[in-house]
Amino acid sequence: MNKIKTKDKIVITALNLFNHKGLSQVTLRTIAQEMGISQGNLNYHFKKREEIIETLYFQLVESIDKGIVEHEEENNLQSFFQVFQVIMDSFYTYRFFLLDFVQIMREHKKIKVHYAQLNTIRTEQFQTLFATLIANDIIRKEELPHEYEYLYKRLQILIDFWISGSAIAKERLSKKTVPYYYEVIGQSLYPYLTPKGKTEYILAMKIKKT
Fold it and tell me: Is residue 37 within a helix (H) or strand (E), and if so which, with residue range?
């Protein structure tokens, strides 16, 4: 059985603390105390808290990238929602990013720059997917200028801030919250579907007809 390295333990402990206490309540000392090690031992691996946050950010990006790569060749509604599910689950796992999103973007230039670049890539990926769904008669053609560009922007806003909205509406977040918001956000695509697309939607979302 492989032993978890101290550096990996630090990252795992930090993620748990950030998720449960919030960014403002967790310092390097907090993490070291939770692990039962000296802050000097922790500083050997991470000199600043920012380095841990950046490590967690790139873990989150990698998790979503893997989900996209696994389904990028399928180009159907089921693959769209499978990627969507990966994004929702990953965001819940690293939910402190969504809860402290604005603060992180203000304080971490490296993350802010990367996020801006990543946003450009994601926009292109989803526009390509929308074009494929149109070609396959899954979603209708655009009726307004930039209609699907703006649809992606709305989806992005909803996905980036659903956890904040849930935290405000409820005192405690749980894994059970994810399926509810998965369906809330997923229905945003329904008005754009063709009859064929609506049939695929029922299957993709595993909805029982009444």
Answer: none
pLDDT in tens, the chain (210 residues): 456 799 999 999 999 999 999 999 999 999 999 999 999 999 999 999 999 999 999 999 999 999 888 877 776 788 888 888 899 999 999 999 999 999 999 999 999 999 999 999 989 988 988 999 999 999 999 999 999 999 999 999 999 999 988 888 876 778 888 998 999 999 999 999 999 999 999 888 875 443
pTM over 0.85: yes
Angle ∠(36,41,42) on CA atoms, nearest 5: 80
Using N-to-C axis directions, what is the helix angle for 77-93 and 177-186, rounded to 10°?
A: 140
Residues whose CB is less than 8 angstroms from the CB of residue 136 and which lie 6 or more positions away in sequence, other chains included? 75, 76
- Whole-angstrom distance, CA of residue 126 vs CA of residue 148: 9
